[in-house]
Design a protein that fits this description.
179 residues, alpha+beta, two-stranded antiparallel sheet, 4 helices, 10 strands, 21% helix, dioxygenase activity, cytoplasm, EC 1.13.11.54
């Protein structure tokens, strides 16, 4: 099952866990209230997984590809890692299914505090449009992930501040309704 926690304020290596002291774990229900959805799947059978197909059909995830993030396989690795870790939002959902390796998604809660979500093999997550977030590898420096999308992919990140965007306004309205 997914592990998530409130982060400390340390500015050192983002690949470290950065757990707040004392520990402040975050459960799936709290993530759901932020619009974050989570599934645990069998990554070894992702090519023919009826559960994955069911999720894709229900949520209209029609497009997919696979990305490997590590120094040896991702062109412009250092630049991309910095870009992924820059706080941003998207106009559409961000869907990631970890096929191998591990990393962290950080999301902001209702009070603008960072929650770190540890992602490993078999974890699938959907971040809602308009949520401020970022991604980093962990200290293993490797992840292989399926990227899913509704329709054609649009990868445009809108770095913070982007509160003027309709996706952000709609997300804040969603938070107000779930409070």
């Amino acid at each position: 099952m997914v592990q998530a926690w409130y982060m400390d304020e340390a500015a050192d290596d983002p690949r470290r866990p950065h757990r707040a002291e004392p520990a402040r774990p975050v459960g799936l229900e709290q993530l759901r209230r932020l619009g974050v959805l989570y599934w645990k799947l069998d990554a070894d059978k992702y090519e023919n997984d009826p559960e994955l197909e069911k999720i894709r059909k229900e949520r209209n995830y029609s497009w997919m590809d696979i990305i490997t993030i590590c120094k040896d396989q991702l062109p412009n690795y250092e630049e991309k890692i910095k870009m992924f870790f820059e706080e941003h939002l998207h106009l559409d959902e961000e869907i990631r299914y970890i096929l191998d390796g591990s990393g962290y998604f950080d999301v902001r809660d209702q009070e603008d505090r960072w929650i770190r979500i540890s992602m490993e093999k078999g974890d699938m997550i959907t971040l809602p449009a308009g949520i401020y977030h970022r991604f980093t590898l962990d200290e293993k420096n490797y992840v292989k992930a399926m990227r899913l999308f509704v329709g054609d992919p649009v990868w445009t990140p809108y770095n913070r501040p982007s509160d003027h965007l309709e996706a952000r306004t709609q997300y804040l309205e969603f938070l107000a309704r779930t409070a």
